[in-house]
Amino acid sequence: MPRLQIEGVNKHFGSFTALNDIWLDIPAGKLLCLLGPSGCGKTTILRIIAGLESPDSGKVLLDGNDLAILPPHRRDIGMVFQSHALFPHLSVAENISYGLRITGISKSERLERVDELLETIRLPDAGGKRINQLSGGELQRVSIARALARQPRIFLLDEPTSALDANLRETMQIELRRLQQSLNITTVVVTHDQSEAMTLADLIVVMQAGTIEQIGPPMEIYEKPRTEFVANFIGATNMLNCLWDGNCAVLGNNKLNIKSIADSSLTRGDPVKVSIRPERVELLAANRGRKPDSNQLTGTVEFVRNIGNLVEIHTRCENTSIAHTYSPQNLSTELNLREGDAVIVHLPAEHCLLYSK
Amino acid sequence: MKKTDSEFRSGPIPGVFATVALGLFFFVPFAIMLTFSFYHKIPGGLYEPAFEVDNYLRFISPFFTQILLISTGLCSLASILALFIGFILTYFMSRMNKRGRTLWLILLVSLLSLSEVIIGFSWSILFSRTAGIGGWMYTLGLLDAPRAFAPGFGALLTALTFICVPFIVLVMFPPLTRLPKEWVESARMLGATPLRAVITVVVPSVRPALIAAFILAFIYSLGSYVLPIMLGKPRHWTISVHITDQALYQANIPFASALSVFLIVTALSLIALISKLQNRFT
Amino acid sequence: MTKKKLGLQSKSRRTILSALAATTGSAAIGFPMLSLGQNQSLRVGAYGGYFKDSFDKFIFPVFTEETGIVVDSIAEPTGQAWLAQLNAAAAAGSAPADVSMIAQSPMLKGQKTELWMPLDESKLPNLKYLMSNFVHRYPDGRLDGVGAVAWYTTLVTNTDVYPDAPESWDELWNPENKGRLGLLALVSNSFLLEIASKTFYGSTDLLDSEAGQLQALEKVAELKPNVALWYRDEAQFEQALKSGEIPMGQYYHDVAGLAAADGFPVRSTFTKEGGVSDSGLWAVSRASKKIEESHIFMNFMCRPDIQTLLSRMVGTAPTVPRDLLDLTDDEFAAVSSSSEPIIPRYDIYDQRGDWLAQKWSEMIVA
User: Fold this and answer.
1) Closest C-alpha among C284, C315, C333 to residue C118
2) The most confident of A171-175, A291-295, C39-43, by mean pLDDT
3) In what order do the strands lie in the sheet with A254-256?
4) Contacts of B36 in chain C (CB under 8 A)
5) Which residue among A350, B135, C126, C304 is least packed, with the fewest CB closer than 10 Å?
6) Rounded distance, CA A160 to CA A31, Å?
7) Contact criterion met (CB < 8 Å) for B35 and C6
8) Answer CATH for C152-276+342-363 from 3.50.50.60, 3.40.50.12780, 3.40.190.10, 3.40.640.10
């Protein structure tokens, strides 16, 4: 399986900058997710890899070879479109074998390959069906089978599960990840759904407005979002507006120590933001008498909900609402809090992330 | 709440309206024509009511067989050419931006507003020896002597094709612009060249519209009277020309009616045949 | 069922027509003063377009001024359509026009249904001026039409291509003129059978018999390779003649003369066999109530000075002999010729029209 590199790609549509100096390196056999809000340029990258758009400048390299000279039909890339783009005038089997026919594979070989693929997508009897007889999930699976039929060198998927309902989406994500791993095919997936990205990806690229915000493995992106945008986009977070006093952040009258501070250009009085994941927040009973220390704020519970696998508690302190979540199985460590209870909120320094404005 | 299309369609009024309109504008004139086609032509005079099949028996001659074959052959050929050109044109239009599409549509619709006489006249000049391509080709050294290409088969075929193209575009424009562009793109990703993608994906997807467009062009060109007399030699005069001659110049209304009935029946059976073949394929 | 519907429809149409006629009648009775004296009127049908416009401009005002009869001119379609309308209206007892301009073959067709009112020759003293071919009669001798307009179809050439004028219609058959001719497309308006007969067989008497007609058809078939365009519409040929695209053919003498006067390289020639003289007649529908006025009108139209005016202003060939006219040689030559014309054999189109048309079509389509 080849390695896919994107080097310094720029793309404009009229006066709109779709991509601004994009560099990517996707190791062979890995799955990379392009994640970002709509209009951030992620689909444009996919279409440039496919050859359906050409970059204004920059290169796409496959195992070191520039793809620019190859038209889409000679790139040997499998692509699944957001709208699945199956051909309604052909049956399921004919759709899957379309690419094989174009390549000139013999009929017997085609039939064999189609059966094999129908088996892989767990629709062994669907070959004779028409496209309009398929459900949403089946459509998605057939379009995946069609894209993989020619055993492409690269596999591209554009929002593969966006048309499916929530339950089916998760099942499809898991299926897709297992399929990709078993085929060990270099894959790029475009999504705006962070949990899909977390499920599928070896590497996540978070994008915003045509630029890359951060590249990294899912957990690294989650734990160490490099920018406020990434922190907000991946998972839920508490984002606290503070001021910098020289060596720690100040929220109201409370000092927040931050363990690692990357930005050395901050000066006293600069507005900063402190981010902490809800599950990293700790709540302590106010009547335990522990004196408010650094990273400990007094507050009042204003909202509690229990959604079965998760309990979420919002506490108001220093005129800011701070969310805290925990798993109800860990009952022993938690308090039985209700709205109006006074609590102490602990924001452990090692989990606080600092962003300058 | 807004009524949906199907609610409108299922109501009784549209059905009644369609029946009345069809009756008024097709069946009644057709019935009158059918009646006249059995009337008796008074030699040297007009006609009198009668019921005789003499007018139809006149068709059974090599002369009218030839006219029918030439009419249908010429018009099918023109319609196929128009379909080919119109499809390609519409396909490229469907890939343009909105401004480009609108400009092309306006251009093509404005062609429809030209009378056939003007179109025929323009083509006859363009194909002429003194002012047209026959002269230019001589000037460029492509011909030994200037020559006229009109009247002639090529000139007539060109003009008939020309008048049919806007109809093809108007029929093909909606389905082709609605066709998701991802279909062609996914065919490309599966190894198809652009041409192959169009042939294997676009054409089959819009086949019913293509057939409808062909039928429309065929019927329309079959009804053309001006172009054959302006651009064709006598052997290219279609059945419409002979109908007009009979009705206007020979004052033989019964025979003109019989020819018209025959033309309509031929056209309708061709449509029926094509629809039947289409149903068999799908 | 369709028959029944049709019957109903034609009945209702007739009812409407007679109702209309009745209304007109009662109006005349209701206002008797208006139908007397200077408010007499006459509805005259003329070929729509050039002829009607010219008559409206130059001829009818003179008539009204002299007689006090107001002319209500009606644009009629050429050919058979007007005949059909007159016929249907006459059957319902009404007339869309009192006097109509009628071509020769519809004139003969109309005779079959006694459509034309027999005319009173005592009320037409000017009839004596007309040349005999402009006096039209029923087979039994009753007068039913007088010459209205006449025109010549001649051999026309483009002077750039043909520096010398041709002398005979046989130029149409000259193999050197391959692909160079523009001829009228129908047997009944090209009169090529007459031209062939006169040119190659001495006179149009050849066409008396079927064998002779076939012989003439064969002769015409010989010139087919020379024909570039068989035209129905004059404009189509005129343009090609002026440009030299189609440099020879048959065309209207007066129109060709106008083109030449405008500086186009076009010439009209009366060949030694003569030009083809075609004409239209004035005839009165038998349903007309304006018998008196119609006679006054027709008598007026036969007058030599009116024929002079027509030749000068409308460009028609006179229906009276040259010596009665106040025309200069140039004016006369622009519309007519003293040489003996080829007179179309309207009788054969009347008797064998369908057969001839069919043979003709087969001949030129083959």
Assistant:
1) C284
2) A171-175
3) A254-256, A249-251, A238-244, A271-276, A353-356
4) none
5) A350
6) 14
7) yes
8) 3.40.190.10
